[in-house]
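Much of the work behind modern protein science is quiet bookkeeping, done one molecule at a time. Below is the pair of lines this work produces for a single protein:

***
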Amino acid sequence: MIESPFSEFENNIKRRDLLPMWIKVFCWIFMLFGVLAIVSLILGFMGSKADLAFYGFSTNEPLSLSGLLIISIGILKGYTAFSLWFEKDNAIEIGRIDAIFGIALCVISMIVMPILNEGISVTFRLELALLIPFLIKLDKIKEDWNSAS
């Protein structure tokens, strides 16, 4: 059988093609979110306030502990989205860290914070409905991602 001179290009799959459409959409949303997180941090240093909220944490003080946590989440999500969209080698590992960190923060805001603040009450964070499938999908495509170029 004669091998085509282009066969090395025909078998290569783009890493981005391994991502389902819903992750691709969220990549763009979170890249924007990452930029806005950096803008919020800059505004905080300039003395401005910004309404920040994510994973059940909220504040209007960017330089407070909650504000810095939310801004850090935004920057991590932005970096994760950038890494996935631009097919970086470490994107799956960063995505897994992002998902695990997000799940942990959701659990804290759902269970721990209400108990500390109000007594026993539990709320459900809808973010978990996407974080868990995101983590599962990253685990499923990890080998193909690492072998693709």
Summary: The mean pLDDT is 89. Residues 17-147 form one domain. Residues 37 and 71 are 5 Å apart (CA to CA). The radius of gyration is 19 Å.
